[in-house]
Write a structure and sequence with these properties.
By secondary structure, the chain is an alpha+beta fold. It starts with 8 loop residues before the first strand and ends in a 9-residue tail after the last strand. The chain folds into two domains: 236 residues, P-loop containing nucleotide triphosphate hydrolases (Rossmann fold, 3-Layer(aba) Sandwich), CATH 3.40.50; 128 residues, OB fold (Dihydrolipoamide Acetyltransferase, E2P). It has a six-stranded mixed β-sheet, sandwiched between helices. It has a five-stranded antiparallel β-sheet with strand order 13-12-11-14-20. A five-stranded antiparallel β-sheet has the order 15-19-16-17-18, with no helix packed on it. α3 packs across α4. The chain has nine helices and 20 strands.
Length: 373
């Protein structure tokens, strides 16, 4: 049965057990043709296991994997038309760059003239033409990663799998290579599944992100969905730097509308939903979350919005980052990180009034952690 491009790669109820322990539990994710799926989560969450199952290195305990409507779950890795780029580069040290890139074609019996043409084409795409005669030991980490990508590119597969390809690079090189991978995807339009523990990589590269925890999918969505509408407190805490501010509070109805109270403080809610109104009547204890960029210094008039509520707090920590400054505040039960403009020059120990943009507030059930709309 032919599938539309909406469901080019289908991971359908995939589970994996090792010695009776669940590594993956009923994972279902769809990727559009030409999409860029990023699998992210803490160490041991199952993201690399899932990638290895897509590649065919690990058999599934149950479930299916389909590409363009055809099941590949029982196919040998060599028959899946998928190319993988490893974290370790896995280059042959005794071969030249050209030899490494062309080795797979040589083992498949591709004629030499065709191999050389393909190697030249891929070297041009990756801008590594001057390196073709060098050995891996003569290359930098970034150059080795390009060679590893080149080896995958010459196969012209239906999908690429990347297993934390930038984790061995220093910070500046990671930024550069991230941009190269994004441009490469835009140029080739091939479907990519990419494993990382780096949320910046996930947010900048993905068309779709799947957040995993203990082998289970917590949320699948666009970077915008994941960041601005996290499905639960785990996703809210894991995605974003600094982490989302969260505090447990009490919803109550007043003559002036719905308020959230915690300790000696309260915030006015902006256009509360019917679900929050209902919670205030029957289940008023709730987790409140707000991102640092949605809390601002009240002296910065440009950041004041109609949904603003203000709290007086004391600055405990000041962290300049260049373009912005993050401040940490703590007064009793009120502990928040805010992003403020550099020109305001906040100082440790200073009292400050912070505006909370309550139109950007998040609410979660205190027991399940599930988002309350």
């Amino acid at each position: 049965m032919n599938k539309t491009s909406e469901h080019f790669l289908e991971i359908d109820a995939l589970s994996k057990q090792f010695a009776g322990v669940d590594a993956l539990k009923n994972v279902s994710i769809d990727v559009e043709e030409g999409g860029f799926l990023v699998l992210i989560g803490p160490s041991g969450c199952g993201k690399s296991t899932l990638l290895n199952m897509l590649a065919g290195f690990e058999p599934a305990t149950s479930g299916d994997i389909r590409i363009a409507g055809r099941s590949i779950a029982e196919l040998h890795p060599s028959k899946r038309d998928i190319a993988m780029v490893f974290q370790s580069y896995a280059l042959y040290p005794n071969m030249t760059v050209a030899g490494n890139i062309g080795f797979g074609m040589e083992t498949r019996g591709v004629p030499k003239a065709e191999r050389l043409k393909k190697i030249d084409e891929v070297a041009a795409i990756l801008q590594i033409e001057p390196l073709l005669k060098r050995k891996p030991a003569q290359l930098s980490g970034g150059q080795r990663q390009r060679v590893a990508m080149g080896r995958a590119l010459v196969r012209d597969p239906q999908a690429f799998l990347f297993d934390e390809p930038l984790s061995n690079l220093d910070a500046r090189l990671r930024v550069d290579m991230r941009a190269e991978i994004k441009k490469l995807h835009a140029r080739l339009g091939t479907t990519i599944v990419y494993v990382t523990h780096d949320q910046i990589e996930a947010m900048t590269l993905a068309t779709k992100i799947a957040v995993l925890k203990h082998g289970e999918v917590q949320q699948v969505g666009t970077p915008d969905d994941i960041y601005h509408r996290p499905a639960n407190t785990f996703v809210a805490d894991f995605m974003g730097s600094p982490a989302m501010n969260r505090v447990t509070g009490h919803l109550r109805q007043t003559d002036n509308g719905l308020k959230l109270s915690f300790g000696d403080y309260s915030l006015n809610l902006f256009e509360p939903s019917a679900a929050l109104q209902e919670r205030a009547r029957n289940q008023p204890i709730i987790d409140f979350g707000i991102r640092a960029e949605n809390i601002n210094d009240s002296r910065d008039d440009a950041m004041t919005t109609p949904g603003t509520s203000t709290l007086p707090l004391t600055i405990e920590l000041v962290e300049p980052t260049g373009s912005d400054t993050f401040i940490g505040t703590r007064d009793g039960d009120a502990h928040f990180t805010a992003r403020v403009a550099n020109h305001l020059h906040p100082r440790t120990g200073e009292s400050i009034k912070l505006n909370f943009d309550m139109s950007k507030a998040h609410f979660f059930d205190t027991e399940s952690g599930v988002r309350v709309e």
